[in-house]
């Protein structure tokens, strides 16, 4: 598979995942009042909607990236991991009623046991370097091609 067809396929996958996140955000909104930490549930709702728009936009841009096969795979999977990891951290926090150590503004007084707080912290913090690397590769891929 050549790089341009891989980029087009990855872009299409990003569009699919973006629409799936939009659907998740819509359905999750109904669960907010029933979660252990409703304020965190609202954060999940908002975050997943934001991520869906981001993935839809990047899915449209993706085929235009000037990246080879290896770098496009790295950028794609790091982007997906980063989105899923931070969303999973917020979902777990909202279900457990925890997360004050990692996301104190969103969690307010929701504080879990040491295991819960550790899982949320580990999963949530792992999304930052992967997202930053992916965004750097995407920015690099948007450089102008030589004529």
Keywords:
147 residues, mainly alpha, 0% strand
Number of domains: 1
Question: What summary fits the major beta sheet?
Answer: none
Can you count the helices?
Answer: 5
Query: Could you spell the SSE succession in H and E letters?
Result: HHHHH
Poorly predicted ranges: none
Shape: elongated
Please tell me about this protein's structure.
It is a single chain. The protein is mainly α and 147 residues long. It has one domain (3-141). The protein has helices at residues 3-31, 38-61, 69-96, 104-107, 114-141. The longest helix has 29 residues, at 3-31. The mean pLDDT is 94.
Ordered list of secondary-structure elements with their pairings:
Blueprint: H1 3-31, H2 38-61, H3 69-96, H4 104-107, H5 114-141
Helix pairs in contact: 1-2, 1-3, 2-3, 3-5
């Amino acid at each position: 598979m050549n790089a341009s067809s891989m980029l087009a396929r990855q872009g299409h996958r990003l569009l699919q995942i973006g629409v799936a996140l939009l659907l998740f955000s819509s359905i999750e909104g109904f669960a907010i009042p029933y979660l252990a930490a409703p304020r965190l549930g609202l954060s999940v709702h908002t975050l997943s909607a934001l991520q869906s728009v981001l993935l839809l936009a990047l899915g449209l841009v993706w085929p235009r990236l000037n990246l080879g096969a290896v770098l496009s795979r790295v950028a794609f999977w790091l982007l997906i991991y980063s989105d899923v990891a931070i969303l999973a951290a917020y979902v777990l926090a909202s279900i457990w009623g925890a997360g004050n150590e990692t996301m104190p503004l969103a969690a307010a007084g929701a504080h879990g046991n040491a295991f819960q707080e550790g899982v949320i912290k580990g999963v949530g913090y792992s999304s930052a370097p992967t997202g930053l690397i992916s965004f750097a590769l995407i920015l690099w891929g948007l450089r102008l091609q030589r004529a």
